[in-house]
Amino acid sequence: MFNKYIKLVIAAAIVVWSVFQFMDKEIMNGISLIFLSGIFVLFYFKNEFLLLAFLQLRKQNFAGATKWLSYIKNPSSALIKKQEGYFNFLHGILVSQTNITQAEKFFKKALSLGLNMKHDEAMAKLQLAGIAMTKRRKREATLLMNEAKKLDTQNMLAEQIKMLKQQMKKI
Prior knowledge:
It is a single chain. The protein is mostly helical and 171 residues long. It has two domains: 1-45, no CATH class; 47-170, Tetratricopeptide repeat domain (Serine Threonine Protein Phosphatase 5, Tetratricopeptide repeat), CATH 1.25.40.10. It is built from ten helices and no strands. The protein has helices spanning 4-23, 27-45, 48-58, 62-70, 75-78, 81-95, 100-113, 118-134, 138-151, 158-170. It starts with a helix and ends with a helix.
């Protein structure tokens, strides 16, 4: 909605306003304004459109996720580095159903920008392994699968890794 720096400027202005409210002995107004400024700081670190796209993806609504991602016009200026990684990660998931070459580019860019959670990184590498396997690059697929297995500490992707290994034996 707002540029990433404008969100911080708005949060700072609201904090200044809350200080004036505290000085006028309007304590409840000052506390409320502090919470309001916290929302803008939260949205600096967690982009609202990415959160809504993740919510739609969780509901298996790919069209809704695409709609929310389309609101981010220039991701390099509107998002911080990790958010841009998740932007590309989500685009890779959405495009992987139709265009695996483009999905591969999105996943590689997401990994280069960085993802916060290890299981998201493992998921991206597992997706890249599946893409490499469909393109008959067995060595690359094996390396990516092993990296995904190392990153998946909670065995959330164990079933998918096992299934991908069985498919690789058939090649």
